[in-house]
Amino acid sequence: MARTVDEFNKKRLRSSNITVVISIALVLFLMGLMGMILINAQKYSDYIKEQLVVNAYYDENYDAKDSVKIAKLEAEAFTKIQALAPVKKAVYISREKAAEEAKKSMGIDSDALFEENIFPSSVEISLKPDYVDPLKIEEAIKIIKAVPGIVDVKNDSTLMVDVYNNLSRILKWILGFSILFLILAIVLINNSIRLKIFSKRFIIKTMQLVGAKRRFILKPFVLEALVLGAIGSALGLLALFGVWYYFTDAIGQSFVQDTSNYFSLVLLVLGVGIFITVISTVIATWRFLRSNVDDLYYS
Q1: Is the Cα torsion angle 270, 195, 290, 228 positive or negative in sign?
Q2: Phi, psi (degrees; rounded to nearest 5) at 252
Q3: Residue of 72, 59, 79, 80 lying closest to 151 (CA atoms)
Q4: At what angle do helices 2-50 and 214-251 cross, to 10 degrees?
Q5: pLDDT of 5
Q6: How far apart are CA 141 and CA 131, in angstroms?
Q7: What span, in angstroms and rounded, lies between the C-alpha atoms of 225 and 219?
Q8: Which residues contact 147 (CB under 8 A, 6 or more apart)?
Q9: Full DSSP string of 245-259
């Protein structure tokens, strides 16, 4: 009979541990998935911002005999533009290339409608994502205009503002959902741990009544919480990266796109899983250590 009861308790304990681990893994999987979406949403937001270009134009009026001197001045100006703080990437466009692009955009193959070198040479500039901010775009344009040899800077400021505002709005929603999932992770993991400790409340109180110190009673529960938290976090991360690998493989993109952010996400998920599990265990166990025997029947 005693052996039967002992086997029953072991099965119940094993079942309880499995339930806690699965709960932790599922919750952290969802939280990690939102974190992965947030990381890549920020990356693609920066990529889209970098596609919004600013065009800096050189002076188109000069004497043909000064072409060598002008070419040198344009090269110096281009070098200075590349070194500017707001500039992510700069591409030099010669007069000949500008004429070719104009022909392609208008669908014209003949040179009959074009005078030679009708278009000025220019620099196509991709700004760093921070400078696409409507409050900073004008500052960036002023810095570019101040470069010797640049006579005009043009950009579609309305498009930039619209794209920036829409991307910022999307990122705020994703960030909001990520914070919500973090709160849900804390609540759900805490509830799973409280139920597990609740099932052991009589064991906790019995150990206390026979003279065991609170630290002695807490220690095995904390160690068990560390193990369960680590296992649950690891399973959640395995599921997360498995799903993410399948998704990136399906759309033909690389699995790891930002190593530092991915590493930070792994540490965050592991930290949240272990920290919440341990803290919830300590709080739930401490509650029963402070309660009376009669209260155990009504907790």
Answers
A1: negative
A2: 75, 35
A3: 59
A4: 50
A5: 44
A6: 10
A7: 10
A8: 56, 77, 80, 81, 84
A9: HHHHHHHT--S-S-H
The model's pTM: 0.61
Q: Both tokens of residue 227?
A: 């193990």
Q: What integer pLDDT is reported at residue 2 of this predicted model? A: 44
Q: Which residues contact 136 (CB under 8 A, 6 or more apart)?
A: 86, 130
Give the C-alpha separation, 99 to 105, whole Å: 10
Q: Is 143 exposed, middle or buried (0-12, 13-18, 19+ CB in 10 A)?
A: middle
The beta strands (E) that lie in the chain are given as 53-58, 87-93, 122-127, 150-154
Q: Is-contact 197 289, C-beta < 8 A?
A: no
**SS3 for 109?**
coil
Angle at 65 between CA 64 and CA 67, to 5 degrees: 65
For the beta carbon of residue 200, count every other beta carbon within 10 angstroms.
17
The pLDDT averaged over each successive group of 10 residues in the chain (299 residues) is 51 70 84 81 73 79 67 84 87 78 63 60 83 76 85 72 72 79 78 78 76 81 88 89 81 63 85 87 80 59
Beta bridge partners of 263: none
| Whether the Cβ atoms of residue 53 and residue 155 lie closer than 8 Å to each other | yes
